[in-house]
Design brief:
11-stranded mixed sheet, single chain, 28% helix, alpha/beta, binds adenosine monophosphate, 324 residues, Rossmann fold, binds magnesium ion, DHBP synthase, 15 strands, 9 helices
């Protein structure tokens, strides 16, 4: 079956199809691929620019941290710190529809955009054999949120993906690997084990009771960003410790200027000298973290255009400036 409107980008999940998909990822491109939960919009999780394209394709107004997919437990251990709880939960439910938030290893080599600047990372080993095969052939961890435009329902077939996302050349994935309908059809459960008290960030196929059997107590976090936060949710968004000032054209004494475009001569870093928003998004968290090193009295950030990815960049900067 292929979509009438996008026949050329739906690719059969045979060996050549999987290899072609892996090549796009290795070259920094975007693909859609099936897992047992829903279709994911995938990119190399080590590549800031590739990850920025995910947010662009989904037209997400915010930088939420993304789930990083790996083919095996050994691969997961290279990216995050596993304590006894994490080992037990991973052994019980991986491969499967459970994402585990853990402290990032310092040597993980992952994009900071993938974690939205946080020191944690959400990992999953999918149960879908096709997804694991793609991950093995691609030889890199794949960051993948659901392959739909922001605000639409998650896709469970290749045709849904084609209907929801822009075409290749218009910020959409280069291809969609067609593995048929997803068996679970519901997003993964997300459990946060990065703090002493385990918390359920998103309900899913693996239930709270399933997890509680292994974890004992489990806090159910309110994942609605507009609701009052439960303790432990405060760290879900990265904000620099150094005071941040937005829409700045020059630095005040003691401030470090983070520039954008060509009008930022005295900037320590420039998010994108060419004024490219994809490049700016790719650089945002790594540059903020570098500047947030305790040596500057403040960080002044140049004005960022409000269209496209500029929306998500401005959202993050505004909230960091407000010290949410
Ligand atoms: P989606 O983008 O639809 O796959 O959803 C990913 C879910 O995992 C969202 O609810 C994220 O907030 C959550 N998530 C991913 N990474 C992290 C992280 N490092 N810390 C907290 N939550 C995370
Ligand atoms: Mg989604």
């Amino acid at each position: 079956m292929s979509s009438a409107s996008f026949p050329s980008i739906i690719v059969n999940a045979d060996n050549p199809g999987i290899e072609r998909t892996a090549r796009v990822i290795a070259n920094g491109g975007l693909v859609a691929f099936p897992t047992e939960t829903v279709y994911g919009l995938g990119a190399n999780a080590r590549d800031d620019r590739a990850v920025a394209q995910i947010f662009e394709a989904k037209n997400r107004p915010r930088f939420n941290p993304l789930i990083v997919h790996v083919p095996t437990m050994e691969d997961a251990r290279r990216l995050a710190e596993f304590d006894d709880r994490a080992e037990e939960i991973a052994n019980a439910f991986w491969p499967g529809p459970l994402s585990i938030v853990l402290p990032r290893r310092a040597d993980a080599g992952l994009s900071f955009l993938v974690s939205a600047g946080l020191n944690t990372i959400a990992l999953r080993v999918p149960d879908s054999e096709l997804a694991r095969e793609l991950l093995t052939v691609a030889q890199c961890p794949i960051a993948a949120p659901s392959a739909n435009r922001s605000g639409e329902v998650s896709p469970t077939t290749a045709e849904h993906v084609a209907q929801s996302l822009p075409e290749p050349g218009d910020k959409g994935p280069s291809l969609i690997l067609d593995g048929g309908p997803c068996s679970v059809g519901l997003e993964s459960t997300v459990v946060d084990l990065s703090e002493p008290m385990a918390s359920l960030l998103r309900p899913g196929g693996i239930t709270r009771e399933d997890l509680a059997c292994h974890l004992g107590t489990l806090v159910v976090a309110d994942s609605d960003d507009t609701a009052p936060r439960s303790p432990g949710m405060m760290t879900r968004h990265y904000a620099p410790a150094t005071p941040l000032r937005i829409n700045a054209t020059t630095a005040e004494p003691g401030e470090a200027l983070l520039g954008f475009g060509d009008n930022a001569n005295d900037a320590i870093y420039n998010l994108s000298p060419d004024g490219n928003l994809t490049e700016a998004a790719a650089n945002l968290f790594a540059m903020l973290r570098d500047l947030d090193n305790g040596t500057h009295a403040g960080i002044a950030v140049a004005p960022i255009p409000k269209h496209g990815l500029g929306q998500a960049i401005n959202d993050r900067l505004k909230r960091a400036a407000k010290k949410e």
